[in-house]
Amino acid sequence: MRKVDTRLVLDTGAAATTLVPRVIERIGYSAADGYKEAIVQTAVGEERGYWLRVAELTVLGVTTPNFALAVFPLKYPDVGGLVGMNFLRHFNFEIRPAELRINLELIAR
């Protein structure tokens, strides 16, 4: 699998971290690697995708191995995915928009 940099949107309202199919394909995965179907209700209707476990996901300098994420198309061509609460739940975080900064603190396990 390859390392791919992409723009992600921090979405505290999203339960699952999501990547779009084109990013998944650039990394070296495909729908055949998915382990179950995913369905999400959005403001515009129902979207269908799948769940996939990637070798690792690095966001904001924090790497999480063997990470489960959803794969769905998004309506924004410049966005490669969403960082959802299944990633963020491992941290205390603070969003400081006036400073253009996000602080993450790993929760002791």
Structure description:
With 109 residues, the chain is mainly beta. It has helices spanning 21-27, 85-88, and strands at residues 8-10, 18-19, 36-42, 45-59, 62-71, 81-83, 91-96, 101-106. Strands 1-6-2-5-4-3 form a six-stranded mixed beta sheet. The longest helix is centred in the N-terminal third of the chain and has 7 residues, at 21-27. The protein is globular, with a radius of gyration of 14 Å. 18% of the residues are buried.
Strand neighbour order, sheet with most strands: 1-6-2-5-4-3
- Tell me the major beta sheet: 6 strands, mixed
> How many E-type strands?
8
What structural class results from the helix and strand content?
Answer: mainly beta
The ordered string of helix (H) and strand (E) elements is EEHEEEEHEE
> What's the CATH H-level superfamily name?
Acid Proteases
Spatial separation of the terminal alpha carbons = 28 Å
CATH secondary-structure class: Mainly Beta
The Rg value, from CA coordinates, equals 14 Å
**CATH architecture group name:** Beta Barrel
Helix share, percent: 10-25%
Indicate how many domains the architecture comprises. Answer: 1
Q: So what's the overall shape?
A: globular
Uncertain regions: pLDDT < 50 for 5+ in a row? none
CATH topology: Cathepsin D, subunit A, domain 1
Proportion in β-strands: over 45%
Instruction: Give me the number of helical elements.
Output: 2
Mean pLDDT reading:
91
